Amino acid sequence: MNGSTPIPASAVAPPIWRDYLTLTKPEISFLVAISALAGFMLGGSAAVDWLTLMWTLIGVTLTSAGGCALNHYLERELDLQMKRTASRPLPAGRIAPGSALRFGLFLVAAGVGLLCPLTNPLTGILAAATVALYLFVYTPLKRVSTWNTFVGTLPGALPALGGYTAATGTFGMAGWAFFAVLICWQLPHFYALAWMYRSDYARGGHQMLSVAAPDGRSLRFQVVLFSVLMVAASLVPFLIDAAGLIYAAGALLIGIWFFVPVARFHHQMTGVAARGLLKATVYYIPLLVLLIVVDRLV
Question: In whole angstroms, how large is the CA radius of gyration of the chain?
Fold first, then answer.
């Protein structure tokens, strides 16, 4: 015993690699990758082109990771004002803004640079457009209008189209169908998050529906509406013969399951109900993608 005061575990800075990993928002990049996987599987021919699929997933993941890092860079001052984000690497001072900027630009350039020659230029253009919409339209709009949530669904859904174009070289109904699923899915996902952290968003100056209309009536209605549209859109691949019975049955079952937390949130609108809805949205897309993959390969 030397009498020195022990350093609390919470005060110990994480390793630098973990901070850089945090900049890439791994959860978002994972969803981007599996969305591209779904689009690719819906657009492919009988035999899966595994090499092209590999480059597609690597390229979109790198591009997404870079876009997320650049988003951290752009929102570093806003993040400092919110409890939920104040401990992120940039507002906490563990990574210099310039380092985050260079890191993000490198990842985006690497991702697009791989997609253009190794899949096709259209897929690379879609990846670049996704980053541009995310950074230069959605991000600044968060402080201006509640429409930011709707606009933000576009960069969130484009990776599905990118996966489809990587497999086919063009656009098609199956790709647009999964694009629509992702558009609709993001609204209950973000509305649940916005309801849980509405005080934090208000403190940070974000124009969220949960802040602008705190009674929750409009938000509650939209959660139900877009959940219904999401499940309806999820059945389109089967209706246009882009997916089979395994997918259709599974999509219908998980759609019914999804309505349980939706109904609970519509009835109660508590923090617990919002968290339950958020968890359901987190599981829904991976389950749907798994169905697409299994249906394609079996």
Answer: 20
Across 76-93, average pLDDT: 88
Q: 198 is written with which tokens? A: 């509405």
Q: Is residue 261 a contact partner of residue 273, using CB atoms and an 8 Å limit?
A: yes
Distance CA 130, CA 53 (A): 19
Domain layout of the chain by residue ranges: 15-297
- Cα separation, 15 vs 285, in Å, equals 31
3-state secondary structure of 171: coil
Predicted TM-score of the model (pTM): 0.92
The answer to whether 291 and 283 have CB atoms below 8 angstroms apart is no
Q: Supply the DSSP symbol for 5.
A: P
pLDDT for residue 78: 84
Structure tokens at 140: 């600044």
Q: How far apart are the C-alpha atoms of 37 and 53, rounded to whole Å?
A: 8
State the CB neighbour count (10 A cutoff) for residue 197.
22
Residues in the chain: 298
Q: Position 231: which residue type? A: V
Contact indicator for 281, 192 with CB cutoff of 8 Å:
yes
C-alpha 58, offset from chain centre? 16
CATH number attached to the domain at 15-297? 1.10.357.140
Rounded to whole angstroms, the maximal C-alpha distance in the chain is 73
CA distance 174 to 72: 33
Question: Which residue type sits at 226?
Answer: F
Structure tokens at 171: 């656009």
Q: What is the pLDDT of residues 7-47, one digit of tens each?
A: 344 456 789 999 999 999 999 999 999 999 999 999 977 78
Spatial separation of the C-alpha atoms in residues 295 and 291, rounded to whole Å: 6
